[in-house]
Amino acid sequence: MQQKRNIQIIEWEDLDKRKFYSFGVFMTMTIRATVYPATLIRTRLQVQRGKSLYSGTFDAFFKILRSEGVQGLYRGFLVNTFTLISGQAYITTYELVRKYVSQYTDDNTVKSLVAGGSASLVAQSITVPIDVVSQQLMMQGQGEHLTRFRLNLNTETGKKKVFGQTRTIMAQIFAADGFRGFYRGYVASLLTYIPNSAVWWPFYHFYAEQLSKMAPSDCPHLILQAMAGPLAAATASTVTNPMDVVRARVQVEGRNSVIETFRQLIKEEGCWGLTKGLSARIISSTPTAIVMVVGYETLKRLSLRPELVDSRHW
């Protein structure tokens, strides 16, 4: 009987950095475009009161499609593409911190947890201002009555319309809240995404190893990793969704207090309110996780230093 192999992890020092960053931008952009509609739907579900606008994920999808067309599912997408910067910052921080922590421990769970949390801290510092603007754009159309800032969607066309709307939203945010307005919900974002990232990576490696023990020894590792990604994403999404609901409301409604927003949510909608947008989040995180894992692991293999290619088995 052939002995089962552990899944090999490609570390930072094994990579050709030029290839890694070149391929990484394309991979990140592809993932963003794939899952953006689900992100928009999740945001609207989390911000609405009860079921005042949509009864669920699929109801939201079809209503937006009928009322606003395909472009309605991509409101704010061009602004959101600037998160490519945070995406590159995230993976760089993750890999560098893993390398640093490995000097003190060989425990993969510890390395993944610390690196994942650190990467999210750096990425969110870049992402939050972009999210604040793109979420306001997401809420235009059917959801505009739920946000503080409004647009006249019929006054401009084409590129002028897209960039004009972005400038208008940014001007309104600055006029209302100053520079601080672009970091509204920063603490809530950290409380959401640092735990999410810190939980995702250890569970990803855990599920991958468990699947490798159950799968035939000749099963490609990439298939096992593609299965482990959605399992880790569903786990992390479930754990951190309550804070994600609070984050969305703080950023869209212009609230200042995370604790007060949490209390009001419980008072108005009960504990069930903490699960709002969870199905949309899991639905969006499943393809995201598959595309991300397959893309990221393939990216690392394509970026492997030439002298190491023949020494690895996938």
The radius of gyration over CA amounts to: 21 Å
Give the count of helical stretches: 10
Instruction: Characterize the main sheet.
Output: none
The coarse silhouette is: globular
How much beta, percentage-wise?
Answer: under 5%
- Tell me the structural class: mainly alpha
Q: Mean pLDDT score, rounded?
A: 84
Count of β-strands: 0
DSSP helix fraction:
55-70%
Provide the succession of SSEs. HHHHHHHHHH
Could you name the ranges where pLDDT drops below 50 across 5 or more consecutive residues? Answer: none
Short description:
The chain is built from ten helices and no strands. The chain is an all-alpha fold.
What features would you describe in this structure?
The protein is an all-alpha fold. The chain has helices spanning 17-47, 57-68, 77-80, 83-101, 108-138, 158-177, 186-214, 221-253, 258-269, 278-302. The radius of gyration is 21 Å and the shape is globular. The mean pLDDT is 84. Keywords: Membrane, Transmembrane, Transmembrane helix, Transport. Belongs to the mitochondrial carrier (TC 2.A.29) family. GO terms for molecular function: branched-chain amino acid transmembrane transporter activity. One of its GO terms (cellular component) is mitochondrion.
SSE blueprint and pairings:
Layout: H1 17-47, H2 57-68, H3 77-80, H4 83-101, H5 108-138, H6 158-177, H7 186-214, H8 221-253, H9 258-269, H10 278-302
